[in-house]
Design goal:
Residues 189-228 are annotated as: Disordered. With 228 residues, the protein is an all-alpha fold. 59% of the residues lie in helices and 0% in strands.
């Protein structure tokens, strides 16, 4: 991972940014719904087919079972594959002028075109959060969904309808995945950062308090008088 700009060193502020980003990206109105309308899939029978492929993305249970470092690495890797899939989907979208001729809303196209910049911004903050996590175990396990590890297989022009459905299923899984990511981050807010809880500076302050002599139980002696 690598940051595109400077990183915030405030844990709570950075976590709040991540939470807001995942809240936005799990909302189907930001991506899936516009895609369905543009591709002509906004029909109840067709919507029924817009369901995530099992195993395409890591499950919430798997994400919850990871340590913080493993979770951030898994999230970064998955978002990298999402970027590739989104780039392929963009190539399938109609042009703005074609939408106007069909009397479709060009705002939907603008929302779809913002998807990759939004994912890139999230990846940047994931990198920054990884820098704040003082975790010595660099060999934590990671999980990447089977479906996200492969680029879309080119579909013949005659199968354009099937290609639209595959894009719909992918986006459905993407939103579900971001919902699970948001739930993981919400638990981080409830429990302090491991790096802060185990920081050397905090440990040193505790040690000083323990070694400082206590005045409890000592009887004050009058001036000029020695203890017997």
């Amino acid at each position: 991972m690598a940051a595109l700009g400077s990183c915030s060193k405030e844990y709570n502020a950075l976590l709040e940014q991540l939470q807001k980003q995942t809240d936005l990206m799990q909302d189907t109105s930001s991506l899936l719904d516009p895609y369905i309308r543009i591709q002509g899939l906004d029909v109840p029978k067709l919507r029924e087919h817009c369901r995530e492929h099992p195993g395409a993305f890591p499950s919430e249970e798997d994400l919850q079972g990871l340590g913080r470092r493993g979770f951030l690495q898994t999230l970064n890797a998955t978002l990298g594959h999402v970027m590739q899939r989104l780039a392929a989907l963009e190539q399938q979208l109609p042009k703005a002028q074609d939408l106007k001729r069909s009397r479709l809303n060009t705002e939907d196209l603008e929302k779809l075109q913002m998807a990759r910049p939004n994912v890139l911004g999230l990846r940047n903050n994931v990198y920054c959060m990884a820098q704040l996590q003082d975790i010595s175990d660099t060999n934590e396990s990671t999980i990447v969904g089977r479906g996200t590890s492969q680029l879309p297989v080119p579909v013949p022009a005659s199968d354009s309808f099937q290609r639209k459905l595959e894009g719909c299923r992918f986006l459905h899984g993407y939103h579900r995945f971001m919902h699970s990511v948001g739930r993981v981050f919400s638990k981080w807010r409830k429990s302090p950062s491991r790096s802060r809880r185990h920081s050397p500076r905090r440990a040193l302050r505790k040690e000083v308090r323990r070694t400082r002599p206590s005045r409890r139980g000592k009887r004050l002696m009058p001036k000029g008088q020695l203890p017997r």
